[in-house]
Write a structure and sequence with these properties.
The chain is α+β, with helices and mostly antiparallel strands. The chain is about 45% helix and about 20% strand.
Length: about 400
C-alpha cells in the first residue's frame, strides 16, 4: 500500500511540475523569431557584422542576422545598415544562395533574392526570389522594417525553404550584397555555411499520457518479475520520455550554451577563431582557414551530448546488475564522461573543417567525428555495462 501511495505521489509531482514549467520557465526559452516588423525578437541572434565606410552611406551594411522559426520551414533574415543620411532612403540588396553548397553560385539549382526596403512607406519590405537564370519564383512583402520615425535602419524578411529548394539540416551557403557596382558585401569575402533546422514544439498532453502508460508497463513487468521486458521497456521508455521532456527545455538551453562557450574558449586557445553570441552561445561561427569564410555550427540536443546522456542513464538506472547505490554513484560520473567525450568529438569536427575547408564537413562530421565518439563511448559502455554483465553470466555458468 505504501509503495502505491509513493508511486501516486511521484506521478502527481511529475505532472504538476511538467505542466507548470510551461508557464514558469517561459523566460528561459530562446526567443522565437516572428515576422512582425517589431525586430525585438532578434536580440543577439547569430549574426555577422561589417565595418563602416566601405560604400555609400545609405547602403552601408552593418550586420546580417539569420535563423529559423517555430514549426515552419522558412529562412529568416534581419538586415541592419549604418544610420543613413536620409532615413527615408530606399535600400536594395540581394541574398545569394548556393543551394547545393559546392562553392559555386551559378548552378541551375541556385537562387537569389532581391530585397527592396522602403522606410518611407511605413517600413515596407518587398522580397523577390529568382533562379540563377533570372526566372521569378515567388514574391513576399509586408511592413517588416523600421519606418522613418524609427530610424530607417533595420528590416526583416523570410523565404520559404521549399521555394529555395532547401530541406531541414541541408547545408546551404549564402552571402548578402548591395545593388550596383561598388556595393557593400557581407561577409567581405567567402560566404556563410548554414544548416537550418526549424524549431519543433511538443505536445505536453501526449507526453504525459505516454509517461503514464510507461509507468504502468514497467510496474506490470516488475510485479510479474518479467525482468528482460522490464529492463527493455524501462530503459527505452526512460530515454524517449527524457528526450521529449528536455527538447526545448531550460536544461537543454543551458547545456547548449555551456558546450558552445567551452568549445569557443578551447578553440581560441588553439588559435582557431570562433564567434559566439550573448543570446545564442550554442551557435558557433567558425572561420575557415582555407578560404577565410565562416561556417555556422549549431549545438543542438545531439551535439550538446544530452541525447547520449539520456540513453546511458536509461541503461544504468534500471540495470539489474548494480545495487541502487552503485547506480546512483555511476550515473553522474558517466554523464560527466559522456560530456567530455562529446566535447572531444565536436573539437575534432571543427578542427578538421577549419584546416581542411568546407569540402571536409561531411567527412569531419559523419566519419571522423563519429569514429572518435564511437570508440570512446564503446569503451565507456564496456566498462559500465558489458564487462559486469559478462561477469554475472560467468558466475551463473560456473554455479550451474
Amino acid at each position: 500500500m505504501k509503495k502505491h501511495i509513493a508511486l501516486s505521489g511521484v506521478l502527481m509531482v511529475f505532472l504538476l511540475i511538467f505542466f507548470w514549467s510551461e508557464i514558469s520557465f517561459l523566460e528561459w526559452k530562446k526567443p522565437v523569431i516572428r515576422l512582425d516588423g517589431s525586430l525585438d525578437d532578434w536580440g543577439e541572434k547569430t549574426f555577422l557584422a561589417d565595418g563602416q565606410g566601405d560604400t555609400a552611406v545609405d547602403a552601408d551594411l552593418k550586420a546580417v542576422f539569420w535563423g529559423t522559426g517555430e514549426n515552419d520551414q522558412k529562412l529568416y533574415f534581419m538586415v541592419e545598415r549604418f544610420s543613413p543620411e536620409n532615413a527615408g532612403s530606399k535600400m536594395t540588396c540581394r541574398v545569394y544562395f548556393d543551394v547545393n553548397s559546392n562553392g559555386s553560385y551559378e548552378d541551375a539549382v541556385d537562387k537569389y533574392s532581391e530585397v527592396v526596403y522602403s522606410p518611407g512607406l511605413d517600413g515596407e519590405v518587398e522580397v523577390s526570389l529568382y533562379s540563377v537564370a533570372g526566372n521569378h519564383v515567388n514574391t513576399y512583402s509586408g511592413n517588416l522594417g523600421e519606418s522613418i520615425r524609427e530610424g530607417g535602419r533595420r528590416f526583416e524578411f523570410a523565404l520559404s525553404m521549399e521555394d529555395i529548394n532547401v530541406f531541414p539540416a541541408q547545408p546551404v551557403r549564402f552571402y548578402i550584397s548591395g545593388a550596383g557596382s561598388g556595393a557593400d558585401r557581407l561577409p567581405d569575402q567567402g560566404d556563410v555555411l548554414w544548416m537550418p533546422f526549424p524549431v519543433v514544439t511538443k505536445s505536453r498532453s501526449l507526453i504525459a499520457v505516454g509517461f503514464l502508460i510507461w509507468c504502468a508497463a514497467i510496474a506490470f513487468f516488475y510485479r510479474h518479475r518479467i525482468w528482460l521486458f522490464y529492463y527493455i521497456v524501462a530503459a527505452v521508455g526512460f530515454t524517449y520520455i527524457s528526450i521529449l521532456l528536455l527538447r526545448g527545455s531550460f536544461l537543454e538551453y543551458q547545456m547548449e550554451n555551456l558546450v558552445g562557450l567551452l568549445i569557443h574558449y578551447i578553440l581560441n586557445f588553439m588559435d582557431i577563431k570562433t564567434n559566439v553570441f550573448d543570446k545564442a552561445p550554442g551557435t558557433i561561427l567558425v572561420l575557415i582557414e582555407v578560404d577565410r569564410s565562416w561556417t555556422t555550427i549549431d549545438i543542438d540536443i545531439e551535439s550538446s551530448g544530452l541525447l547520449e546522456m539520456c540513453i546511458l542513464l536509461g541503461l544504468l538506472l534500471f540495470y539489474p546488475g548494480y545495487s541502487l547505490f552503485k547506480r546512483l554513484v555511476f550515473s553522474p560520473v558517466s554523464v560527466f564522461i559522456v560530456f567530455v567525450i562529446n566535447l572531444i568529438r565536436i573539437m575534432v569536427v571543427i578542427t578538421i573543417i577549419h584546416l581542411g575547408g568546407r569540402d571536409m564537413i561531411f567527412l569531419a562530421h559523419t566519419l571522423f567525428g563519429r569514429i572518435v565518439f564511437f570508440i570512446l563511448i564503446v569503451a565507456l559502455y564496456w566498462h559500465l555495462l558489458t564487462k559486469p554483465t559478462l561477469k554475472i553470466v560467468r558466475e551463473y555458468v560456473s554455479d550451474g
